[in-house]
Amino acid sequence: MYRIRIPLPSLRCSGKNNNNNLDFPLELKAGDLIEIFRSCYQHWAIYVGGGKVVHLAPECKFYRTASILAALSDKAYVRKDQLLVVVQKDTYRINNKHDETHPPLPVSKIIQKAEDLVGREMPYNLTSHNCEHFVMELRYGVAMSDQSSNPVLAVNSLGGLGQVTTSQPPFPPSVNK
């Protein structure tokens, strides 16, 4: 019901699952976390079906630089876009990396919460409110980011352009339902 097969010729996907085993074609299910490998950081989105993802990004149509632009701002927007538009020429993979330690919320709740947030302005902070925190909160109910917990990765996400700031609650109280 929530599965879709996307033909590989039009995608540049890594075709790797969490265990780095080849898995062609990549089969996406609603609620899957999508890790997109940009040049110096990873962008994260959550698959909602129909070839679309919901993700946190600045108001910008240039997705390859979107997270860097967001890092220089204190706000970002929840967007729903075609996966291929967000991925562009980058590789990506399904990475539901915390499923063994944090049980995912029911898919219907994940999708409903993601859809409800589309178009909303959200706080953005490289270390406490980034795109990885956003999708982890949707899937697991817990905002977490491996990128931001590593100061070297956090600074590299900016291309060395920013500073690390103090943590705040992951989302406004109305989002944490």
TrEMBL record:
Molecular functions per Gene Ontology: N-acyltransferase activity; phospholipase A1 activity; phospholipase A2 activity
Highest rank taxon of the organism: Eukaryota
Database matches in Pfam families: LRAT
Annotated LRAT domain residues: 33-147
UniProt GO cellular component terms: cytoplasm
InterPro entries the record matches: H-rev107_PLA/AT, LRAT_dom
Keyword Hydrolase included in the entry's annotation: yes
Record keywords, A-Z: Hydrolase, Lipid metabolism, Transferase
Gene Ontology terms describing biological process: N-acylphosphatidylethanolamine metabolic process
Protein name listed in UniProt: LRAT domain-containing protein
Native source species: Sphenodon punctatus (Tuatara)
